[in-house]
Amino acid sequence: MRLLLAEDDPLLGEGLKTALGREGYTVDWLKDGQQALQALTTEEYVAVILDLGLPNLDGHQILKKARAREVATPVLVLTARDGLCDKVTSLDMGADDYLSKPFEIEELFARIRALIRRSSGRSQPSLRYDDLLIDPATHQVSKKGKPVPLSNKEFSLLLYMLEHQGRPLSRSQLESQLYGWDQEVASNALQVHIHNLRKKLGKKLIKTVRGFGYMVP
Ligand code: CA
Question: How many CB atoms are located within 10 Å of the residue 196 CB?
Fold first, then answer.
């Protein structure tokens, strides 16, 4: 589950990246508006956290340009506490939600989960697949009612694949969701995670799409 974080405040950015990473997200953090727009239009993200005051291109311009290019990625805007005008303008320019600074990290997590849920057309907070029950809020997975412990990466991969159920997903698409720009990836890392998920949750859960990648049928 790869997120784009566009925030030029080094302290806030670092804190958010760390906290979101611990929550199991892969975070690409950019401090420059122009670069953020570039990333948003070329890379695939499950959601974007967008600060409005960014150097070179502000958040509203990024939103406007990205939506004009038909980028459908859900966007959560970070605004100043009393920026009513900012909130209204952001929503009207295509933002999906906003959060006023300062905010509690738990609220940011919950809003991101809601954005991802809505963008995949789900109304239920938890996901059911066969005999599996997956709770994105607590990261708990159970099979036939019994809890199955997963690593952060395994959970993130499982959730992403379930959100894209029925669609073949390429290896590079899955790898980019698991690892951001600044992480070194072993060439068999994805295979290892898939192997573990099958072992823990059942062989039939993930189908290999020969020469391409994987899918949850
Ligand atoms: Ca700023």
Answer: 15
How far apart are the CA of 86 and the centre of ligand 1, in A?
13
CA of 205 to the centre of ligand 1 (A): 43
Using alpha carbons, select from 81, 111, 80, 79 the residue that is nearest to residue 96.
111
Domains, the chain: 2-119 (3.40.50.2300), 127-215 (1.10.10.10)
Between β-strands 169-170 and 140-143, what pairing exists: parallel, antiparallel or unpaired? unpaired
CA of 130 to the centre of ligand 1 (A): 44
CA of 19 to the centre of ligand 1 (A): 19
* Unique residue bearing structure tokens 């997200």: 25
91-142: per-residue pLDDT in tens? Answer: 999 999 999 999 999 999 999 999 999 998 888 899 999 999 999 999 999 9
User: Can you give the pTM of this predicted structure?
Assistant: 0.91
* Of the candidates 20, 9, 122, the residue with the CA atom closest to the CA atom of residue 55: 9
Distance from residue 94's CA to the centre of ligand 1 (Å) = 19
| Dist. CA 17 → ligand 1 center (Å) | 15
